[in-house]
Write a structure and sequence with these properties.
The complex is a heterodimer of chains A (about 290) and B (about 270).
Chain A: E1 2-6, H1 14-24, E2 29-32, E3 47-62, H2 72-76, E4 82-83, E5 86-87, H3 97-101, E6 107-122, E7 125-132, H4 140-154, E8 160-163, H5 170-176, E9 181-186, H6 190-205, E10 210-215, H7 221-233, E11 237-242, H8 246-253, H9 265-289
Parallel strand pairs in A: 1-8, 1-9, 2-7, 2-8, 9-10, 10-11
Antiparallel strand pairs in A: 3-6, 4-5, 6-7
Chain B: E1 2-6, H1 14-25, E2 28-31, H2 39-43, E3 46-60, H3 70-74, E4 80-82, E5 87-89, H4 99-103, E6 109-124, E7 127-134, H5 142-150, E8 157-160, H6 167-173, E9 178-183, H7 187-202, E10 207-214, H8 222-228, E11 232-237, H9 240-247, H10 256-272
Parallel strand pairs in B: 1-8, 1-9, 2-7, 2-8, 9-10, 10-11
Antiparallel strand pairs in B: 3-6, 4-5, 6-7
Classes of the chains: A alpha/beta (about 290), B alpha/beta (about 270).
């Protein structure tokens, strides 16, 4: 079963939920798709058992000896990234148009390393993750690579948990596709609800079954109700409501998944939610096979 | 004068800081988080005007196309594919670079436009408020961001950045004269702050730090801030009432204690960034 945990925006408790599910299950494969700010591995004294380099883009490189500064490249570059053979590497998208028109054949497209990838072994499973070079393109391609890296380990595991990226763009699209379902973690704030609706529409657009988990539901019960009503109207199941719990702050600072704090209210809520998700996904699969 | 507000990750309070500071300083507010823009919920600007953002994509004239496949070979983004009797355009993967048009030997390829989102502009008490909004299902936010940043109003502009440190953030920083980093005193906050500092240092611009959800007892950030010599512009204290006001979409500066905190920050900020 492959489940993506997403949220539309950061800071809603996505990683808290994803890491908890990983701690409940026996041998989870986890994929940290929040490649901009990967936090999942911080919870573990993991060991990197495999490292790789990811070449996610290309850059125009000019041979100064061959370039005669004719400026033909200026005319075709739509990103304003080259000026008579001088390349602004922050602006170059690696499309190669300049290479095509250069009469001197002075331009070559050179692959650029944009991230380091890791398979990190943790006590009960593995995490596939990346450390992106600062300022690089956090593209869907990198996320697809992380999921490919995780595939080798998926055979021995019943559950793959994808910690999604924030937003509704390229990176999230790559995080949610090819999963059995997405758990959308939201919080009862005006902005949280706004973000939730956008990411819900995204899941709908790509046909991903979705379940909603309202984190800190008791900080604003009116908006919690609004979210629940919205879900009812749109046929989405609310699978869990996590109360505001000071223990979560402790768990983040002690870097231990919240489900290890047995007396915490959030622990109960997350365990219940996860049981419900498993039940619903199984039913959905059964229905589809029939 | 453009000031970018960034944080390494989401949920640290970028929007809270940018909207409240913009109001205190009478500056303009530009929401650059085009995937999930939230600033308008707090500022409630009026007289909103909308404009579509269009990108270009190839259109193939079948009567001229000889199916040679040169365009497919030239496209580095896999936006074109050749099937048995067709060239297919995957418009969402297209970066509108024009390489396919350059190589087409028969002139079968031209460029057309399609819309991927909108830019909205309104005002609130003399402040210009702008934001970009990416259509759901569209993967690429950068063209909206570029257009949004290309036409900034005069005066001081607060650029509420997208989360993270990737291309969208770099694009925002390309238009900034200075940066405000926002963090919170947690292990994750520190981890993400380091990435944001690396980014602004690499771009060689003046910057200062605001610690949100501040708690006097907590010293987790102190060593790092000292070691890097980072200028702290101020602190926004953590209070349950503030979280409640935020949840309702209200401004923190409507509370006297927070108003004072933001006035102090704006004064310090003038010395560092303006």
């Amino acid at each position: 079963m492959r489940i993506a945990v997403i949220s539309g925006k950061g800071g809603t408790g996505k990683t808290t939920v994803a890491v908890s599910i990983g701690a409940i299950e026996e041998h989870p494969v986890m994929v940290d798709c929040d490649v901009d700010a990967p936090n999942m591995y911080l919870y573990y004294e993991g060991e990197d058992i495999k490292k790789g380099q990811f070449y996610g883009s290309e850059l125009a490189v000019v041979d100064k000896d061959l370039c005669n500064k004719c400026g033909k490249c200026n005319n075709v570059c739509r990103y304003d990234a080259i000026d008579k053979g001088l390349v602004n590497d922050m602006k170059c998208e690696g499309c190669g148009a300049c290479e095509l028109v250069c009469p001197q054949k002075a331009i070559t497209m050179v692959p650029q390393k944009t991230a380091d990838t890791f398979i990190t072994k943790i006590p009960n499973g593995i995490i596939s993750r990346a450390k992106m070079d600062v300022g690089s393109d956090g593209s869907g391609k990198l996320i697809t690579e992380l999921r490919k890296n995780a595939e080798l380990y998926q055979r021995g595991s019943k559950f793959t948990i994808v910690d999604g990226s924030p937003g509704v763009g390229c990176a999230v699209i790559a995080s949610i596709t090819a999963n059995d379902a997405a758990i959308i973690v939201t919080e009862p704030t005006k902005s949280g609800m706004d973000d939730f609706i956008r990411v819900h529409k995204l899941c709908e657009h790509f046909g991903i079954p979705q379940y909603v988990c309202i984190n800190k539901y008791d900080i604003n019960e009116d908006i919690t109700m609004d979210i629940e009503n919205y879900c009812t109207d749109n046929g989405i199941t609310v699978v869990g409501k996590i109360p505001y719990d000071e223990t979560i702050i402790r768990s983040i600072n002690e870097l231990k998944p919240i489900v290890y704090y047995e007396d915490s209210k959030a622990n109960y809520a997350i365990r219940n939610m996860w049981n419900k998700v498993k039940e619903l996904v199984n039913k959905y699969e059964y229905k589809n096979i029939k | 004068m453009n000031i970018s507000v960034l944080s390494g990750k989401g949920g640290t309070g970028k929007t809270t800081i940018s909207t409240n500071l913009a109001v205190i300083l009478g500056a303009n507010y530009i929401d650059c988080d085009v995937e999930e823009p939230n600033g308008f919920l707090f500022l409630n600007p009026e007289d909103i005007k909308k404009r579509e953002v269009k990108v270009e994509m190839p259109i193939i004239d079948k009567s001229k196309c000889t199916m040679c496949g040169a365009c497919v070979k030239a496209c580095r983004f896999n936006a074109l594919a050749k099937t048995k009797n067709n060239i297919i355009v995957f418009e969402k993967l297209c970066h509108s670079c024009g390489a396919c048009e350059i190589v087409c030997p028969t002139g079968a390829l031209s460029y057309g436009e399609r819309s991927i989102g909108i830019i909205e502009e309104g005002n609130k008490n003399g402040m210009v408020c702008k934001r970009g909004l990416l259509d759901i299902g569209e993967p690429m936010a950068v063209p909206i961001l570029k257009q949004l940043l290309h036409e900034l109003p005069n005066g001081i502009n607060f650029l509420d950045s997208p989360p993270g440190t990737s291309c969208n953030v770099v694009n925002t920083l390309n238009y900034a004269d200075g940066a405000i980093l926002v963090t919170e005193p947690t292990a994750f906050g520190l981890h993400d702050l380091k990435m944001a500092v690396e980014l602004v240092k690499g771009m060689n611009m003046p910057f200062g730090l605001i610690i949100n959800k501040y708690d006097k007892e907590n010293h987790i950030l102190d060593d790092y801030i000292d070691k890097e010599g980072i200028k702290v512009l101020g602190y926004v204290p953590y209070k349950k009432e503030a979280a409640e006001e935020y949840s309702r979409g209200n401004m923190l500066i409507d509370m006297p204690e927070y108003k004072e905190a933001f006035i102090n920050i704006s004064e310090t900020m003038k010395g560092v960034l303006l």
